[in-house]
Amino acid sequence: MNLSKKTIVLLMCLVFLFSVNTSAFACPTHEFKVLKDDGNIRQISTVCNNVEIYAELNTVAYQVSLSTVDSMKIEKKYKVNIETFLDGVLSGSLIDLETNEVHVIGQSDIVLPISDEAIKAVLTYLFIDEQYNRQIIVSDGIMYLDTPWVMAVLNRYDSKFYYCAIVHNGHTYIGPGLTTNEALERVKLGKDVFGQTQSYAMVIANLAGGGYTNPEIHGNIPFYFYHYHPKSGTNIMPAQCFYAANTPIR
């Protein structure tokens, strides 16, 4: 059964809602507001038990921040470090920018103005954007942007030749930029990368294996991309070196 991203958002938020007493966390999904969403910055807000919550996702810097304003107008700002956001599992921590205290979501004794369940619901809404049919996943502390962001990232030409990549549920996700040496190490570990162009993808596959396969694609366009596999003799390595088919060889 295929579920839309909107349905997934609602289900995940409801899970967080009813996992605790509703008097401790009143944060209906319809009260979320999108304050900004220009492809680079996504900002949302809501109110839970008279506490205003603001969250921001920066898809250029791959960073997340959160702030609260309570009924006494006391503002608290946090850096958000997410370790995992995948298949309904969310783990990570908040760092108080004033005190440097670290609140591990679901495991900390540090009292925050909002509950862990509120934090999880807000971050879920921040990461799953049903309006534009895109979402964020986080694996091993690395944030990846869904397929609709891929070309935007490649077109930034931010001096990065390579990016982290991962495939999840048939979608190709793109992560932070890598140097050539970082990309080579990642490929040798069997992990995927995305090349700024087809030629870069070809080069990194060749560096990793001494050879490479012909371009191939396993999934469906536009969610999957052509790629090379490094090849050492007759041994084909598992890493996929992606590229966008409409980027030039140069």
TrEMBL record:
Keywords tagged on the record: Signal
Extent of the signal sequence: 1-26
Annotated protein name in UniProt: Uncharacterized protein
Originating species: Heliobacterium mobile (Heliobacillus mobilis)
